[in-house]
UniProtKB/TrEMBL annotation, chains A, B:
Gene giving rise to this polypeptide: proA
HAMAP family: ProA
Protein known as: Gamma-glutamyl phosphate reductase
Keyword Cytoplasm: yes
Protein family: Belongs to the gamma-glutamyl phosphate reductase family.
One term of GO molecular function: glutamate-5-semialdehyde dehydrogenase activity
Length: 430, 430
């Protein structure tokens, strides 16, 4: 499926990445500084290329929110270049000794963190994604094949040209950052199993789902973010109001905003009307189950609402008879992203944190904290809702794997087998 | 694709597993002890069921190695019951605090290890796999849906009956261990994405490949084990002989046995003849590239040999001009399982350990050490050759994921956004 040219490009990236994997933290940071300087020098070209992209998009009748994402003026570029320099300060995730164990005298096992290899990153409009992800890839020792949205083509070309120019004067080969430009190449990239180790899609839910369904390469990301807030029987009124309003309205398009509010039936008459009023004052459209429709005089929610991510000022409300019903609802309709409980009852909180199967389980705080920067990771590569690690907000750690190194002095397994088997010492060396 | 009965069974397993996830180490160990006692009591039934399986298999003309795997006599069962009790001693992988960080005063982030959920384990002949994996699943807080080979049907039924009987007197629901019996159910199990979190296939390479290609559920395992040994220019003769013989002949059917021997051209005339002689004395059939055919008078290897896992006393030999050529060969034909170098040159060793992209990279020791027990993990769930963790030999850790818990006291994200944003403290709490 992939053209010979694309395979060759992928092989070059792989080769560059192998060499990058062996560089020191200092060499990688020098390369990142060179990128920052090169982007500074190329600012006029990048801004002009973006101007051209924006004009073409305007002529094609691009939607306003998309236009804002596409737009990359000098100020925004400056912020992004500052972001590049910030990555220098992040600790190097490569070369950490995770296990160090003597298996027997002179036979030593080490588990050491190392780069994944080559990343395939497919993003929609925002051209600055090319800057962020290239820098994080280099810091973590990985090569990266980028594919931007077609609206951002000229911007991405100018950015990647500057990045590669910067790298050309460093220990890092410019081959580690590549740009694909056609849609055919995107599809082909998803089939490049032997050359690409991780796909990171950045875009709409349907786009991420398309990627997940069309590749055998591991995908870091999430399609849906159907997050819940549950107001328990003993929820404190003021906390319930503040957290609900924040979780729904602080940034409704975010994946960690809530879509469904569950309320214990016994406290609904007291707590739900003021919560609803506060939401409505913020312009939130409410939908409800039968009891909530009756209580609040709002339109009815349908079955489909319980699994819908509105990404907008809309919230579905449901009353439940028990914490167990809330848990069942969340574990049935949730997307394993982030779910929260408001309660003053520590047993209820503990049960919720234990039994909700999600990357993030929160007590008495807003779901909006689910974010790599807020968690203190220094960077966010994506948020994963899969079951296996890495899960939740993923920092540089998500671009890293490990290998087992065993060094001996002629040690063979026969020594440790059979009737006179020598025992292993299995002594941790700290 | 899955029948309503199968979905119902999977849901029951999930429900049992949710409850299991919240139990203490002591409760899980009591359940494991109950399994051991129940298997002891049911020994006559299990041995009789296995006898019946063996007779049916013999009548059907089963191959001898397969028969040996199928056979489960009282002695073998006793060993397995002792293995069950050993699992009690393993540290509980659940509930470990991996990150503990104050985000701000009163707002605390914890990353805590937790069970994956439900495992789907498909194994071929060996019925005792049902015992081992059920015990490890319970220790790690997971439910498990088992599917054994059809030859082992009666044995598996007797074993699972005993396990469930044992569990019925404990805090762990018998529903957490389920047995499927038909081949149709195997295929359906692979499609149970919402109910099964990890598939563990145990069987031949082609069987594992079939599983990998027919499911979207993560698979823990490996299809191929094409391991290499490279004798570098400065390899010491005695180490080279001992390690080559051990890595090829100590257990040739193992996935960590070598299939290809690479030798630096400059030392081949000195080192290869004695190595070849030692191998031939152990009955190893050698195949060679042109230079090795000439040197040793052995049959020629074809291109296909470089990617073949013989799982038998056959070894392909190739001479290379440099360490770089050896690295390229391994990174091209290898299966990322385990590869080793024999050398007295520390720089060469370091380059090899850095640049070979495999779960195991070894220096001056046999590839046969690639094993969870030998690494000191106490148990081995499988060996993974994928790029992302868990990689290499995987112990109980492979059945575990984590979740982020955030607890606050009414904290909302608006406080930390905008012009007067409060900074996070991001203080690690050790």
């Amino acid at each position: 499926m992939a053209s010979p040219t694309l395979i060759e490009l992928a092989q070059k990236t792989r080769q560059g990445a192998r060499q990058l994997a062996g560089l020191t933290t200092e060499e990688k940071n020098q390369a990142i500084e060179a990128i920052a300087q090169s982007l500074e020098q190329a600012t006029p070209e990048i801004v002009a290329a973006n101007q051209a992209d924006c004009e073409a998009a305007t002529a094609a009748g691009i939607a306003k929110p998309l236009y804002h994402r596409l737009k990359l003026d000098e100020t925004k570029l400056k912020t992004n270049i500052a972001g590049v320099r910030d990555v220098q300060k992040l600790p190097d995730p490569v070369g950490r000794v995770q296990i160090h164990r003597e298996l027997d005298e002179g036979l030593v096992l080490k588990r050491i963190s190392c780069p994944l290899g080559v990343l395939g990153v497919i993003f929609e409009a925002r051209p600055e994604a090319a800057i962020q992800i290239s820098t994080l890839a280099i810091k973590s020792g990985n090569g990266v094949i980028l594919k931007g949205g077609k609206e951002a083509l000229q911007s991405c070309e100018a950015i990647v040209k500057a990045i590669r120019q910067g790298l050309s004067q460093t220990a890092v080969s410019p081959d580690v950052v590549q740009l694909l430009t056609s849609r055919e190449e995107t599809v082909a990239l998803l089939k490049l199993d032997p050359y690409v180790d991780l796909i990171i899609p950045r875009g709409s839910n349907s786009f991420v789902r398309f990627v997940q369904e069309n590749t055998n390469i591991p995908v870091l990301g999430h399609a849906d973010g159907v997050c819940h807030l549950y107001l328990d029987e003993s929820a404190e009124r003021e906390k319930a109001i503040a957290i609900t309003v924040d979780a729904k309205t602080q940034y409704p398009a975010a994946c960690n905003a809530i879509e469904t509010l569950l309320v214990h039936r016994s406290c609904a008459p007291q707590i739900l009307p003021p919560v609803a009023q506060a939401l409505q004052e913020k312009g939130v459209k409410l939908l409800g189950d039968e009891a909530s429709v009756e209580l609040l005089g709002i339109p009815a929610a349908t079955e489909a609402d319980w699994s819908t991510e509105y990404s907008d000022l809309i919230l579905a409300i449901k009353q439940v008879d028990s914490l167990e019903e809330a848990l069942n609802h969340i574990n049935t309709y949730g997307s394993k992203h982030t779910d929260a409980i408001v309660t003053e009852n520590p047993q209820a909180a503990q049960l919720f944190l234990n039994q909700v199967d999600a990357a993030g389980v929160y007590h008495n705080c807003s779901t909006r904290f689910a974010d790599g920067f807020r968690y203190g990771f220094g960077a966010e590569v994506g948020i994963s809702t899969q079951q296996m690690p890495p899960r939740g907000p993923v920092g540089l750690e998500g671009l890293i794997t490990y290998k087992y190194q065993v060094t001996g002095n002629g040690h063979i397994s026969a020594t440790y087998s059979g009737a006179n088997a020598k025992p292993f010492t299995h002594r941790d060396m700290g």
